[in-house]
From TrEMBL:
This is Subtilisin-like protease SBT2.6 isoform X2. One of its GO terms (cellular component) is membrane. Belongs to the peptidase S8 family. The active site is at D54 (charge relay system), H129 (charge relay system), S491 (charge relay system). SUPFAM superfamilies: Subtilisin-like. It comes from the Eukaryota. It comes from Raphanus sativus (Radish). Keywords: Glycoprotein, Hydrolase, Protease, Serine protease, Signal. It holds the Pfam family fn3_5. CDD domains: PA_subtilisin_like, Peptidases_S8_3.
Length: 710
């Protein structure tokens, strides 16, 4: 029995975890406003080590090459992690840029889930995800993204000079096991990483704890933060539904995903003059020329298509090359594409093999919430995602295609041409909260009771992100064998924050993880590029996607603003004692359980979890009136006077005290916020507290509160 043996704090039943699945440096203003302040991109993130708990790394990728920079990487002054060798080539996974590489699979092996042929008993990335996230945070600057003979731009990490430490604990087929992930986190902390990026979270409640904050991830990460490590974790991809977060605790920075300003669109022009919008990252068919269109179902060879769906265009050998050659091939986007047994990459290969001028994938029926992402293709290709536009195409094809009495085609007369989808369009409506991004309220236990802590914490780009891919990667059927992939998820948002945190830590090496988190949150923006309040993608009543006004449950404090985060003016600092106080005062939590995890008896000086010194305020059960306190520290170099203002939706009154305060450099002061129920509406009210400094600093805190009768 492990549970009772000395030296073991707590044992959790192993459960599976899942991965949450390059223009963003410009969108975030890094090359112009941030990198120059730290000595340019070739110094951005110098000597900061970012640890990645993920699916490993593909070490031969140009994003991780150590010779990519004019300044060679020397030995690191303090990191002490080890480097495994590749068992196949006997070469080290490390090169100066990659500074540590280890893999963790004991629990996976014990469960019989580990297959060394596909999972690789080394830090090698057999999935793609780990290479993608590492390059977002710390990939080299100016790496050309080339695919199918096109260059889609230059990729760069947020902190291109930061070092990468790889802790592989996720695997392509089964995800990962909690104890492997926990072992990886513990090792990373022991080795001396500065920052941890986790694109993973629990996918089911553990049986051993009722408290979300003490699930094995969060409990282990508390130890990491105690040791001075900043932790960025993906919020989860269960949006747009409430209470879908898989990251809960105040010591973690929980990252939601935004759509940035770059969109890829394309169109198909029919012979009758209609233009149908669609998506496809592909070149156009030859200009000023139309091509005959042939449907896969009309060019079948014999009866060979019985076993699978020939209209998927996954197998060129079942289609008649003579009829397809030089024409546009029409294919059907069936459920197989959603399930992953068919891919757009295969359609493009089929069309190329048959000598087609291009391909069109037609979506005839769509299950609510299906996400269509543009996929790069070397030949002209387009996906028509709007069912009504698909019907326009099918009607046109049927009217123009003459058939004999058995339904066989006599002549193909439908014509079309495919536009150029390679050039992105920049939109002013960015950023927006992505549909899939997990939403608050945060929960304090696995019966989903609301917590007195706002989550997510911050919003960062996470939709259609170009980044490195592993040539062994099989996670995305459309990118098998490729060097780059364009994918979406809060998994992509978390490493943006990890890399930006590295830039903040480089400038302020003495700051605690809480101070870095505070700087990112209080300087973030709740307006889009057009100056309007942030919007969130959401389902309408008819289950189509629409945009609604976003709330702190969608974006936390707002969208990250890296240059402002380097100079926040004030920070809301917190340390291990504060985190314990938060745990101890959370109603319904078991003090023995806390002691079990922390070896520390509870203190109740905080009185209420809403008093934890977070850069946000959440009161989930506001009866009559409640006052919360916050403590700010002036991290600027000079004295500054701050005026404090507040606003709140009318059902709750808000007051701040004092109305102004002056802080010398390095000094700390407390202020209080009093919330009073005016009317019980049954819904959360949102507001904010703003501290405006006499030297131009602006510090914002989101406020959420739910008024109750008793």
């Amino acid at each position: 029995m492990l549970r009772r043996s000395p030296g073991v704090k707590s044992v959790s039943r192993d459960w599976k975890v899942r991965k949450l699945t390059t223009h963003t440096p410009q969108f975030l203003g890094l090359p112009t406003d941030v990198w120059p302040t730290g000595g340019g991109y070739d110094r951005a993130g110098e000597d900061i080590v970012i640890g990645f708990i993920d699916s490993g790394i593909f070490p031969h990728h140009p994003s991780f090459a150590s010779h990519h920079t004019s300044v060679p990487y020397g030995p690191h002054p303090s990191y002490k992690g080890k480097c495994e060798d590749d068992p196949r080539t006997k070469l080290s996974f490390c090169n100066g840029k990659i500074i540590g590489a280890q893999h963790f699979a004991e629990a996976a092996k014990a469960a019989g889930a580990f297959n060394p042929d596909v999972d690789f008993a080394s830090p090698m990335d057999g999935d793609g995800h780990g290479s993608h996230t590492a390059a977002i945070a710390a990939g080299n600057n100016g790496v050309p993204v080339r695919m199918h003979g096109y260059e889609f731009g230059k990729a760069s990490g947020m902190a291109p000079r930061a070092r990468i430490a790889v802790y592989k604990a996720l695997y392509r087929l089964f995800g990962g096991f909690v104890s492997d992930v926990v072992a990886a986190i513990d090792q990373a902390v022991h080795d001396g990483v500065d920052i941890l990026s986790l694109s993973v979270g629990p996918n089911s409640p553990p049986t051993t704890t009722k408290t979300t904050f003490l699930n094995p991830f969060d409990a282990t990460l508390l130890g990491a933060v105690k040791a001075g490590v900043f932790v960025a974790q993906a919020a989860g991809n269960g949006g747009p539904f409430p209470k879908t977060l898989v990251s809960y605790s105040p010591w973690i920075t929980t990252v939601a995903a935004a759509i940035d300003d770059r969109r890829y669109k394309n169109h198909l022009t029919l012979g009758n003059g209609k233009m149908l919008a669609g998506i496809g990252l592909s070149p156009s068919t030859r200009p000023h020329r139309s091509y005959k269109m042939v449907s896969a179902n009309d060019v079948l060879l014999g009866s060979s298509g019985v076993r699978y769906n020939p209209s998927d265009c996954q197998k060129p050998e079942v289609l008649n090359k003579k009829l397809v050659e030089g024409n546009i091939l029409l294919c059907g986007y069936s459920f197989n594409f959603v399930a992953g047994s068919a891919s757009i990459k295969k359609v493009a290969e089929t069309a190329r093999h048959l000598g087609a001028a291009g391909f069109v994938l037609v979506v005839e029926n769509v299950s609510p919430g299906t996400k269509f992402d543009p996929v790069p293709s070397g030949i002209p290709g387009i996906l028509i995602t709007d069912v009504s536009k698909s019907m326009d195409l099918i009607d046109y094809y049927n009217v123009t295609t003459s058939r004999d009495w058995m339904g066989r085609v006599k002549s193909f007369e439908a014509e079309g041409s495919i536009g150029d989808g390679l050039e992105p369009i920049l939109h002013k409506s960015a950023p927006e909260v992505a549909l899939f991004s997990a939403r608050g309220p945060n929960t304090k236990d696995f019966s989903f009771q609301d917590a007195d802590l706002l989550k997510p914490d911050i919003l960062a780009p996470g939709s259609l992100i170009w980044s490195a891919w592993s040539q062994n990667g099989t996670d995305e059927a459309n990118y098998v064998g490729e060097g780059f992939a364009l994918i979406s998820g809060t998994s992509m948002a978390a490493p943006h924050i990890a890399g930006i945190a590295a830039l903040v830590k480089q400038k302020h090496p003495q700051w605690s993880p809480a101070a870095i988190k505070s700087a990112l949150m209080t300087t973030s923006t709740v307006m889009d590029r057009a100056g309007r309040p942030l919007q969130a993608q959401q389902y309408s009543e008819t289950e189509t996607m629409t945009l609604v006004k976003a709330t702190p449950f969608d974006y936390g404090s707002g969208h990250v603003n890296p240059s402002a985060a380097l100079d926040p003016g004030l920070v809301f600092d917190a340390g291990y004692e504060d985190y314990l106080g938060f745990l101890c005062t959370t109603p319904g939590i078991n003090a023995h359980e806390i002691r079990n995890f922390t070896n520390t008896p509870c203190n109740y000086r905080m009185r209420h979890p809403s008093n934890f010194n977070s850069p946000s305020i959440a009161v989930s059960h506001l009866v009559r009136t409640q006052t919360v306190t916050r403590r700010v520290t002036n991290v600027a170099e000079e004295e500054e006077t701050y005026t404090i203002t507040s606003r709140m939706e009318p059902s709750i009154a808000i007051e701040v005290s004092p109305p102004a305060m002056t802080l010398r450099a390095g000094a700390s002061r407390e202020f209080s916020v009093t919330l009073t129920v005016r009317s019980v509406t049954g819904a959360y009210s949102f507001g904010e507290v703003t501290l405006k400094g006499s030297r131009g600093h602006k510090v914002s805190l989101p406020v959420v509160a739910l008024g109750q009768k008793r």
